[in-house]
Amino acid sequence: MAEVAPMSPSSPLPIQDRKCFFIQRDYSKGLTVAWSTEFPTELVRVIDERSWVSFIKELNERFAAADKITFRSVMETFLGLCTCYVFHPCTRSSYEIHLEDISDYIDDVNEQVFNTRGFNVCNPMEHGMRSLEVSFLFTEKEKPPLPPPTHNNLGIVPRI
């Protein structure tokens, strides 16, 4: 019996039949963790470009906040050095807290937006932060219909 992707209870694809693609990291600003905001052609008829770019920008901002040097992160490093790193197993670092928040954010967006559109974004920490894996949950024939367009704050109906 084939393993089944856990995201869609109605009609999931077997893992070997799953179609997926990867969004590569954007190294244009150095080694900071950031993802390319280019809209992938694979998602053209699945989600609107503004929603995808908004998700990627928010993800990039959250990773930037995790990498930010703060008083707390400096003190965590200092206490680690002073205690020969015995201090680290006793508490969670600010970086670990940020990574957990990022993981929760990705899970929430998947549940509320992406899974209803028929795809799932995997946590980049599962791939060593080298890429974002985007997996489709349905075959082309089983794809759920797009929701009706909604008006944004400006009263403009976005094109899908």
Automatic annotation (TrEMBL):
Keywords, A to Z?
A: Endoplasmic reticulum, Membrane
Q: Which GO terms describe its biological process?
A: protein targeting to membrane
- Tell me how this protein sits in the membrane: Peripheral membrane protein
The record's listing under InterPro entries reads: Golgin_A_7/ERF4, Ras_palmitoyltransferase
GO CC annotations on file: endoplasmic reticulum membrane; palmitoyltransferase complex
Q: Where in the cell is it found?
A: Endoplasmic reticulum membrane
The residue ranges of the Golgin subfamily A member 7/ERF4 domain are 21-133
Subunit = Interacts with ERF2.
The UniProt similarity line reads: Belongs to the ERF4 family.
Can you say what this protein is called?
A: Ras modification protein ERF4
Native species = Pristionchus mayeri
